[in-house]
Amino acid sequence: MQPRLTMENCGDKIDAFLSRTYYLNGGYDNREGMLKLSALMEHIEVRIFYLSVPQEALLDVASTLAICAQTQKGWNRIIIEKPFGFDALSSHWLTKALLSKFQEKQLYRIDHLLGRNLIENLTVLSLTPTYFAAVLYIDNSRWDGMPFLIKAGMGLIKHRVEIRIQFRHVPGNIYHDRFGHNINLAANELILRDVPDEAILVRVNNKVPGLGLQLDASELNLLYKDKYNAEVPDSYEHLLLDVIDGDNHLFMRSDELTAAWNILNPVLQEIDKNNIAPELYELGGRGPVGAYYLWAKHGVQWTED
């Protein structure tokens, strides 16, 4: 096998890593293969199993692993890739089957798209909808009336992963009648960005120096790569280290997965029932026009700048 590794800043660490890497030829979904694996790891008392297998083979692999390859002296942790089911029912049965073999604290559901660039490689023959936009609310006193806007898409003008917090305009503004022509500037905004570069951005409307009350929009930016002379770990590096440390706060639990499907499943059923066609948008554009009407309906200006 030819290892496909990024050699930057690795040095001798690559050789040390590869010296601990082995290939075992055996069926991953049968007892004999798992027993061979367990024998190879006989003296290893802490084990992490990364199940990067076809979805249809996942339960067979997990079941055989649970019986034949777990250590009885230390801990066992199981990493599972998406998809975690295709609807609420299939997700429920998958979770139930996994929890019959493992404890919740042993399971680490990893989103492989966090660590791969394949999300940008959209196959032109794919019939899967490539854009999703929604407005959600949390039904409690703290977040009452606060819209949470979510959008995700492929083939857009820019590839970004970020959280944007927009601050409401102050009611009863005593300066309302004295501002210049640019009173309708965008709201003050805090942006927590992960892609393309990790950064914390603050966009504020400030008074222009001088007489009068002229406003202008300014940015206060913290780019991690400029501030800190350190290599930012890949998403996969961070997640795998968390598995080793037994820290699962970034991983989805079974109850969180169920809650997510309870929200999305009625939407999917409605789309299938009424044969709703996805709204088309231009490759390399800003996404469906309908999304911007949705933001405006909830009083939000969502720019791509």
Automatic annotation (TrEMBL):
<feature type="domain" description="Glucose-6-phosphate dehydrogenase NAD-binding">
    <location>
        <begin position="12"/>
        <end position="121"/>
    </location>
</feature>
<feature type="domain" description="Glucose-6-phosphate dehydrogenase C-terminal">
    <location>
        <begin position="124"/>
        <end position="302"/>
    </location>
</feature>
<dbReference type="InterPro" id="IPR022675">
    <property type="entry name" value="G6P_DH_C"/>
</dbReference>
<dbReference type="GO" id="GO:0006098">
    <property type="term" value="P:pentose-phosphate shunt"/>
</dbReference>
<dbReference type="InterPro" id="IPR036291">
    <property type="entry name" value="NAD(P)-bd_dom_sf"/>
</dbReference>
<comment type="similarity">
    <text>Belongs to the glucose-6-phosphate dehydrogenase family.</text>
</comment>
<dbReference type="Pfam" id="PF02781">
    <property type="entry name" value="G6PD_C"/>
</dbReference>
<dbReference type="GO" id="GO:0050661">
    <property type="term" value="F:NADP binding"/>
</dbReference>
<dbReference type="GO" id="GO:0004345">
    <property type="term" value="F:glucose-6-phosphate dehydrogenase activity"/>
</dbReference>
<dbReference type="GO" id="GO:0006006">
    <property type="term" value="P:glucose metabolic process"/>
</dbReference>
<keyword id="KW-0119">Carbohydrate metabolism</keyword>
<dbReference type="Pfam" id="PF00479">
    <property type="entry name" value="G6PD_N"/>
</dbReference>
<dbReference type="InterPro" id="IPR022674">
    <property type="entry name" value="G6P_DH_NAD-bd"/>
</dbReference>
<dbReference type="InterPro" id="IPR001282">
    <property type="entry name" value="G6P_DH"/>
</dbReference>
<keyword id="KW-0521">NADP</keyword>
<protein>
    <recommendedName>
        <fullName>Glucose-6-phosphate 1-dehydrogenase</fullName>
    </recommendedName>
</protein>
<keyword id="KW-0313">Glucose metabolism</keyword>
